[in-house]
Amino acid sequence: PGYGSGASESMFGRALKPYRDRIFLATKLTGNTELELRRSAELSLRRLQTDHVDVLQYHGGYYTDADVERFLRPGGVIDGLKALKRDGLTRFIGFTSEGANGATSRFIATGEFDVMQICYNLIFQHPYDPSRKAGAIYEAEAQRMGIVTMRPLTSGIFQHWIRLLDPTLEQRVDLPRALLGFVLSNPLVDVAIVGMRSPSRVEANVAIADDPAARIDLEAMHERYVRD
Length: 228
Description:
It contains eleven helices and six strands. It is α/β, with parallel strands linked by helices and 228 residues long.
């Protein structure tokens, strides 16, 4: 609902309605109380033209300890999400996080969430450190949570850096393949969310997902890092 004041959900609702029983549908919601969360979820369901989604995720960013208390208090965010799951508006509940900090770890440790969506890519690798078996992705896996990653193509940041350093590199290297392949090489990642603006980009991303040659050995890569 945060994208285009609900316009994104409305478009998906019209496009996906004939295929609802064949797709896995997820959206986000906001609010601080059970009532606010329910209102947000019900509006989303109307726009999506369905009576339930498969995943409802609290739309967050960089969390603080105060956010954790807001989630955990009686009648707060977790109670609201659990009520929506109990009442059949969603099959699973989760949260989104832009940063793998202590607050995110506290959310994971509650054991109340089914899914975590977190920023993870070639230039933001903090959630997963295979050399130490540490990070939010390992923590979520230990809780048997589904792990969804956002911004696998770095929101264009890595590509911008490359153009500044070597404007010709994109002519020699398929950067979307390298970046998406990096995220899909992570054995703990279940889903990588990729924005796609054309049928050709959809087909290219499917080809990357299906191609074992697009994968790398993340543990070997981490072993080559220079550390203090």
